[in-house]
């Protein structure tokens, strides 16, 4: 716990805008109780209709995380990468490709045939 506090303090000093937040972890890391259910494995076993929507420049959830999740899900998912920044890729981004592709998926269940890059608007 001391190392954790020290790391937060150090990052707060080095990166005054976001340091403490990015070095921070959730209280659950030290939760003294066992989970009510076992962790769910992230793998290629499960529904075959997962659409991952990810901006290329998203500081809170970097694009590499979407790519890594796509690798874990293998053929049961598609990655829709949007050439944009920020955290909202769907309605708030105003990107027609992201809006149309995601809406089609939500309404019909149709996923792109392959991973797709939506160009900047």
TrEMBL record:
Domain of life: Bacteria
Pfam families xref list: Abhydrolase_4 (PF08386)
Domain (Peptidase S33 tripeptidyl aminopeptidase-like C-terminal) ranges: 15-118
Name of the molecule in the record: Peptidase S33 tripeptidyl aminopeptidase-like C-terminal domain-containing protein
